[in-house]
Amino acid sequence: MLRSLTIDPDKCTGCLQCEMACSYENEGVFNPAKSRIKVFTFHDEGRFVPYTCTQCDEAWCLHACPVDAIRMNRETGAMEVSDSVCVGCKVCTIACPFGTVNYNQDTGKVIKCDLCGGDPKCASACPTAAITYVDADATGLDKMRAWAARTDNAASASN
Amino acid sequence: MKHVIIGAGPAGIVAAETIRKLDADATIVVVGDEPEPPYSRMAIPYLLTRSIGEQGTYLRKQDDHFRQVGIEVVVDRVASVNPGTRSLLLADGPGMQYDTLLVASGSTPILPPVPGIGGDRVTSCWTLEDARRIAAGIRPGSSVVLIGAGFIGCIILEALVSSGARLTVVEMGNRMVPRMLDETCGTLLEKWCNSNGITVMTGSQVEAVEDQGDSALVRISGGRSVEAQLVISAAGVRANAGFLEGAGVDLSDGAVVIDEYMCSSVSGIYAAGDVACGRDFSTGEYSVQAIQPTAVEHGRLAANNMVKHGSVTHQGSMVMNVLDTIGLISASYGQWDGVAGGDSATLEDRENYRYLQLQFEGDRLIGANTLGMTQHIGVLRGLVQGRFSLGAWKDRLKDNPLLIMEAYLAVTQGTG
Ligand SMILES: Cc1cc2nc3c(=O)[nH]c(=O)nc-3n(C[C@H](O)[C@H](O)[C@H](O)COP(=O)(O)OP(=O)(O)OC[C@H]3O[C@@H](n4cnc5c(N)ncnc54)[C@H](O)[C@@H]3O)c2cc1C
Ligand code: SF4
Fold first, then answer.
1. What is the band of A2 on the pLDDT scale with cuts at 50, 70, 90?
2. Do A153 and B281 touch (CB under 8 A)?
3. pTM of the model
4. Do A157 and B409 count as a contact with CB atoms less than 8 A apart?
5. CA 20 to 30 Å from B66, out of A21, B116, B293, B407?
6. Which residues of A are less than 8 Å from B316 in CB distance?
């Protein structure tokens, strides 16, 4: 059974532990600016919303890549960028309708959530269980997927 | 069923692979006239900078990938198509029958009609063969003239500079990438280029290329001239549809007009990618978008309809581009130039080369230009293509256009 990150913004206190854990795991530094998960702040409403790649079925990034640098990891279901193949063209960053593939000017490659190979550090770092790693058919994900479908040109197309 | 695909670029290859996924038994043949394994033109700039070798440009990296998935790739050129007998003629090989045919033959650069343009020092930058010529022709310090600062011109500009060329760019329009960036953005990009040692001449035209033996003298409007070791032309393209002559397929400006099933005016003949004049998501009109994401989308949708006609409808592809110009990244989406009766929001920081411009129609985002931004740009696509009603977030975006992620989360998840 594939698992996926499920986010419950109501539980988020904005402590940014997830961003710290993510940047440390993936970039070796505690630097929220280098995190693949991002907590958005809604000042007026006093709300925090953690957000990252949903590993969507449409896989816009994967299909947009001209050199086959993005592949699905069959064990985790994550779309993973192969740094050695990526040429840094950034087409995936404009093709992803969620804004969750980002270009890193330091490396000339793109970064996106890869579920840390099946042990996502953001989820383990979250003290309030706002981010959990659960069975893929758990509630919440379907809703995000539904929004993904809305961008699809032809929701009935097979890929 | 036998599906024949003309052209082994991204549109053709994605179509072939999609057909295979939908029908394990179909016979699939891709005929492409370039000698290399199927590759991506988009990767050429990175080949020029030697970030990758030729293999790095290949669409699929595994040697026997196509054989493994049961797709026959034939290197030959389609000479003509006969819809009456559902057959086609090849330049070298024997004829071929098809049940469905996909025209995914892309386009070919056209050289501006000026004296001397056919000379040895002038080349396009379109194929791997061109790339080899360019790589061999540039030495550190070489003077290179680039004709055209459209999307393709600009996408190779960075590679030319990092190969050590002293670059002069000649563009007819009043700014760089006039069909992708608005006046402010294009002008900022030009300033950025000039401050990085590139000579950009907008509102200018190359009038002649004179061979001088070991260099060429490029004459430019206004009585100017530049001596160059290499002249690269990126001044427009023409669809490769000549082989359809007599087949009765409707063309528009030489490109194959396709309907919502990616089918041409002749039943059984589909088209995809740079050769196809298809529906634009934003305007609903038909045009050639000439970008990779559209080629891939066309290919996928065409394949579905080749296997089962009418199974999938094309709502229109969205125009989107991203450019990296010596470290300054710009992007455009949809109707970045706005619509009559529309509304816009801008954030301008000229000193730091940062710019963000959003276009609205009612309370929906319909297009955008960005400069100097790398984070979360894709969400602009989500907002435009989802046709989300922004409600109160429109005013918030007008106050601060940078809140695009927040606006997206608010309207899609009811947060905030
Ligand atoms: C240098 C460069 C950089 C680019 N960068 C970007 C970018 O950053 N982003 C972006 O979105 N787009 C970019 N593009 C554009 C993008 O490459 C094209 O939109 C894309 O290649 C279109 O794919 P296609 O399959 O329709 O056509 P093509 O890739 O052109 O493939 C068509 C193939 O068909 C072959 N063919 C033609 N006629 C025949 C015939 N009669 N018989 C058999 N075969 C035939 C052609 O030789 C070719 O191999 C770039 C293009 C170039 C040249
Ligand atoms: S930036 Fe890299 S991963 Fe993204 S589309 Fe380009 S080559 Fe593929």
1. confident
2. yes
3. 0.94
4. no
5. B293
6. 153
